[in-house]
Design the sequence.
């Protein structure tokens, strides 16, 4: 697993209080990891800060799963 | 009671009578305060009076860019915005049938839209801190209506619905959002009324007198305090019994 994926996973585990092995490629933040809509906003904020990037609102809406997040951030850093 | 030591507060309309008293009350409770308003001179005079823990940031609330910049500027100076008091407001009274689009829009822009933008601007920091207090200054007129104030009443009622919605969204993050709705308060604006007008108004106020700006400030101080952490989405009416709602 890439360094970015590791860091993203750590943020997700911390913010949502879930077990690390639940955070799989296709795990949906809302459907599988128990996030509410405000949690997803906070996750995006945390990603922005951790990686020093800007995630516009329309892009943020496409980040539904752990895999989506890793893919977007890998392309943005 | 009501210790705001270490908290940073942004107060709009701080050049006015009520806003100035709100700033004084928060400051006296230990908060660092950023005073915002359109006119620099009264803000600087108040800052000089308060002495330490105070900053001044002018802002034209009818200008979107200026509004967007205000929370950032305040956070840059103070380190954060933990307490936001949206107190600034304007009136452009006219009978409904004569009210122009411009009179309607300018009041909605300054009173309601700027409040929305400022709330949005401080949320990120409050969410991260898991603590925040937003107090929006509404009006008794927002609940009762008032002839000649269709625009103003709409803006103040809109503020209440907006505050409740936001309160529900962020309650789980330790952020409260409430309104204070003043009745007739002694300010420069009401000083312009003649004795006859004042007497007529007072017939509607069971307390038999106008309210003082400090009585609004006390309500704001309470809602901004750690003690009010379980109070959210409410409107605290401070009107001498004029409307018991």
Sequence:
């Amino acid at each position: 697993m890439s360094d970015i994926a590791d860091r993203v996973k750590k943020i997700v585990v911390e913010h949502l209080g879930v077990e690390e092995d639940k955070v799989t490629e296709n795990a949906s933040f809302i459907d599988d990891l128990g996030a509410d809509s405000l949690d997803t906003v906070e996750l995006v904020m945390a990603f922005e800060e951790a990686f020093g990037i800007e995630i516009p609102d329309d892009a943020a809406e496409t980040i539904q799963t752990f895999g989506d997040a890793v893919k977007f951030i890998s392309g943005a850093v | 009671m009501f210790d705001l030591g270490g908290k940073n507060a942004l107060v709009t309309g701080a050049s006015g009578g009520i806003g100035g008293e709100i700033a004084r009350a928060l400051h006296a409770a230990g908060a660092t305060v950023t005073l915002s308003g359109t006119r620099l001179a009264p803000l600087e005079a108040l800052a000089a009076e308060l002495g330490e823990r105070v900053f001044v940031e002018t802002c034209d609330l009818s200008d979107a860019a200026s509004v967007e910049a205000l929370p950032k500027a305040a956070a840059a100076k103070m380190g954060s915005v933990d307490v936001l008091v949206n107190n600034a407001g304007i009136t452009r009274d006219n009978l409904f049938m004569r009210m122009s689009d411009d009179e309607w829009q300018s009041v909605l822009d300054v009173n309601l839209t700027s409040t929305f933008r400022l709330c949005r601007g401080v949320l990120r920091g409050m969410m991260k801190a898991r603590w925040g207090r937003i107090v929006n200054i509404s009006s008794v007129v927002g609940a009762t209506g008032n002839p000649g104030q269709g625009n103003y009443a709409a803006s103040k009622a809109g503020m209440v619905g907006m505050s409740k919605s936001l309160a529900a969204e962020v309650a789980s993050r330790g952020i409260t959002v409430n309104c204070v709705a003043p009745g007739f308060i002694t300010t420069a604006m009401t000083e312009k009324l003649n004795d006859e007008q004042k007497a007529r108004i007072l017939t509607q106020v069971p307390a038999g007198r106008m309210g003082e700006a400090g009585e609004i400030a006390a309500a704001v101080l309470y809602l901004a305090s750690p003690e009010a952490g379980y109070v959210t989405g409410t409107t605290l009416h401070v009107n001498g019994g004029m409307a018991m709602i």
